[in-house]
């Protein structure tokens, strides 16, 4: 790049006023979040049936099973993450009972949340 | 081209690629999944977001960040739309290509955002919903491999951008150094220019001083003072040489003017004997020759004037005598012309009176002609009346003859009646008385008719005679009218001739009056000429006296007379 093209480049750099403001990232973040949420629709758990129950981190697998049974669900199997287990809800109130017992949210039993078969 | 322009152009490229990727996501979703599902909706939402951002914030960094985010999201949407096909793995190359293109924006944050979006996409969806990211089995190792490649590319791009900015700084420093060298060169040039300016100012000051000295000398010379000189103490020898040349010029002019002035002074003192005898060159030699020539010519002129003034005095004396004689004769001529004018005016009055009278006579003659023609017409009517009277008399005579015959027949009848009454006897006695009365009436009627007949014949004879007289009178009146008409024409000719004569006399009178005026004017001119000649004689005498004050060289005077 020669001298003639250098000077305008240097002179133009101060024109990006506010490029370090966090607000500049807001449109991109909003689009990414909305897209991620939309793309994650298949992760939503069914009201009844097989679903992955997510507990707070460091919740033991035994505690998780106990809470599932206490809520009236059936045990399907563990996942790769100890604080996430796959359960079977028999009624529509299963998820509300699980939230009351300490679970965070529910996901479809796929991918990382799929039950371990071996 | 500025960095903003480069970024704007690159952002537009990213925008275009995002639109293409979004449309590809819609097409792939329709082709692979058989419906417009979530990936296609995300792709369309990304295009809408970019369009809105273009019109609201395209001059801000936020638009760049949004553009790279949407581009990565569109690629993710394409991969999600291709769920279940082997092409999913190949489409991952689009992430790396898009990340490479993000370097065109020359913004590290854009690269970091693109990397972060791909990383989060791989980590979250690769772990939770691997079917949206990978074809076949997913796994942490596979995600880690992609992440390593992604990070390597991002690091390389950031390094490349860092090096680019360093190169830019180097170039900027080089430009600054070059500018410093240029400024140093300009400074040196200014110093040289200032020294040249000082030298020129010094020379200008010296020239101004020389010009001022020249101006003083030239102004004094123009005022007739040739005593001033230009000083010869300048720093430059050329200027001193120039000053000495000017001084020599002034000295030469002063000498020539002084000698010429002496000759002119002698000429002004009526001394025409002085001449310039020095040694001169060039224009001064011509000035000397011209001054001597002026003196010679003036000598000749004075001598000529002196001779001419004597001749002029004699001539004006003769002219004055002749002018006085002419004046007297002109006065007499004017008097004669004036008398002639008076006579012509009287003659013109007489002619005018004659013309008026001739006009009146012509009018009277015209009246006579008209009266004679009227009388002639009346006589013609009288002749007609006389003819009718004659014819009436003849008719009356016829009637009288008839009456006479009736009276004769009545007398015979009365006679026969008397005879028959007489035969009747007593019975016819009364009838006989009537017949006698009838006979007597018939005889009376015959006598009366005989007398009337005689009178009628006498009247007819007189009417015929009257008719002849009337005819003669009418002929006489016609002759009178002809004579009067002829007389009228003659009188009209006389009147016209008198009028022409009157006009001619008037013209002659005008001509004589003009002659009188001209004569009067000539008399005045003669008087003026007489006075002018007298004045010219006085001027000639004065000229002769004025010329005699000059002193002439006898030899020059002899040459002047020869020239004259």
TrEMBL record, chain A:
Region named Disordered: 1-21
Sequence ranges of Polar residues compositional bias: 1-12
Keywords attached to this entry: Membrane, Transmembrane, Transmembrane helix
Stretches that traverse the bilayer: 23-41
Protein name as it appears in the record: Uncharacterized protein
TrEMBL record, chain B:
Family statement drawn from the similarity comment of this UniProt entry: Belongs to the methyl-accepting chemotaxis (MCP) protein family.
Location of the HAMP domain: 223-258, 261-303
GO terms, molecular function: transmembrane signaling receptor activity
Sorted UniProt keywords: Membrane, Methylation, Transducer, Transmembrane, Transmembrane helix
UniProt keyword annotation of Transmembrane helix present: yes
UniProt-recorded name of the protein: Methyl-accepting chemotaxis protein
GO biological process: chemotaxis; signal transduction
UniProt cross-references to InterPro entries, sorted A to Z: Chemotax_Me-accpt_rcpt, HAMP_dom, MCP_chemotaxis, MCPsignal_dom
Transmembrane segment boundaries: 12-32, 38-55, 62-81, 111-134, 140-160
Domain of life: Bacteria
Gene Ontology CC, one term: plasma membrane
Methyl-accepting transducer domain: residues covered: 308-537
SUPFAM superfamilies in the cross-refs: Methyl-accepting chemotaxis protein (MCP) signaling domain (SSF58104)
């Amino acid at each position: 790049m020669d001298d003639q093209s250098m000077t305008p480049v240097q002179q133009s750099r101060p024109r990006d006023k506010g490029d370090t403001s966090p607000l500049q990232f807001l449109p991109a973040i909003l689009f990414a979040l909305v897209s991620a949420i939309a793309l994650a629709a298949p992760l939503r758990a069914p009201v009844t049936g097989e679903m992955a129950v997510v507990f707070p981190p460091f919740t033991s697998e035994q505690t998780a099973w106990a809470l599932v049974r206490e809520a009236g669900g059936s045990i399907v199997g563990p996942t790769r993450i100890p604080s996430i287990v796959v359960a079977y809800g028999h009624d529509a109130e299963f998820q509300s009972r699980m939230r009351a017992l300490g679970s965070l949210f529910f996901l479809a039993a796929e991918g990382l949340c799929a039950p371990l078969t071996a | 081209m500025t960095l903003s322009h480069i970024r704007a152009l690159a952002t537009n490229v990213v925008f275009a690629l995002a639109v293409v990727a979004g449309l590809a996501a819609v097409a792939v979703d329709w082709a692979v999944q058989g419906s417009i599902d979530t990936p296609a909706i995300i792709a369309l939402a990304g295009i809408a977001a970019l369009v809105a951002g273009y019109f609201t914030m395209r001059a801000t960094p936020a638009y760049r960040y949004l553009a790279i985010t949407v581009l990565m999201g569109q690629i993710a949407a394409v991969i999600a739309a291709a769920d279940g096909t082997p092409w999913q793995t190949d489409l991952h190359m689009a992430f790396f290509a898009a990340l490479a293109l993000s370097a065109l924006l020359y913004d590290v944050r854009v690269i970091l955002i693109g990397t972060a979006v791909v990383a989060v996409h791989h980590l979250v969806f690769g772990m939770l919903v691997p079917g949206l990211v990978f074809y076949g089995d997913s796994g942490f190792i596979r995600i880690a491999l992609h992440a390593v490649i992604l990070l390597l590319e991002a690091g390389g791009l950031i390094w490349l951008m860092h090096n680019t900015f360093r190169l830019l700084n180097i170039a900027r420093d080089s430009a600054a150094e070059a500018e410093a060298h240029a400024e140093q060169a300009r400074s040196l040039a200014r110093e040289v220019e200032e020294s040249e300016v000082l030298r020129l100012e010094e020379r200008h000051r010296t020239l101004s001083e020389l010009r001022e000295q020249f101006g003083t000398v030239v102004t004094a010379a123009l005022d007739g003072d040739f005593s001033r000189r230009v000083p010869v103490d300048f720093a430059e020898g050329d200027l001193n040489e120039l000053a000495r040349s000017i001084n020599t010029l002034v000295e030469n002019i002063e000498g020539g003017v002084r000698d010429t002035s002496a000759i002119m002074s002698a000429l002004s003192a009526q001394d025409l004997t002085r001449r310039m005898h020095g040694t001169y060159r060039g224009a001064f030699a011509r000035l000397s020759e011209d001054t001597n020539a002026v003196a010679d010519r003036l000598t000749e002129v004075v001598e000529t004037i002196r001779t001419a003034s004597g001749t002029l005095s004699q001539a004006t004396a003769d002219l004055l005598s002749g002018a006085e004689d002419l004046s007297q004769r002109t006065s007499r001529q004017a008097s004669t012309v004036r008398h002639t004018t008076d006579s012509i005016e009287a003659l013109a009055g007489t002619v005018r009176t004659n013309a008026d009278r001739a006009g009146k006579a012509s009018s009277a003659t015209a009246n006579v002609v008209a009266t004679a023609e009227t009388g002639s017409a009346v006589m013609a009517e009288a002749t007609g009346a006389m003819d009718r009277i004659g014819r009436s008399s003849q008719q009356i005579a016829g009637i009288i003859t008839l009456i006479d015959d009736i009276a004769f027949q009545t007398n015979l009848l009365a006679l026969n009646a008397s005879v028959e009454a007489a035969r009747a006897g007593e019975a016819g006695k009364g009838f006989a008385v009537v017949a006698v009365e009838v006979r007597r009436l018939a005889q009376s009627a015959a006598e009366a008719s005989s007398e009337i007949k005689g009178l009628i014949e006498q009247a007819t004879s007189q009417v015929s005679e009257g008719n002849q007289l009337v005819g003669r009178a009418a002929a006489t009146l016609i002759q009178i009218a002809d004579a009067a008409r002829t007389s009228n024409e003659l009188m009209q000719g006389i009147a016209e001739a008198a009028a022409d004569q009157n006009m001619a006399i008037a013209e002659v009178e005008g001509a004589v009056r003009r002659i009188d005026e001209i004569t009067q004017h000539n008399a005045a001119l003669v008087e003026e000429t007489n006075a002018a000649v007298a004045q010219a004689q006085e001027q000639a005498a004065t000229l002769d006296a004025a010329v005699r004050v000059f002193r002439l060289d006898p030899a020059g005077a002899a040459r002047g007379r020869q020239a004259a």
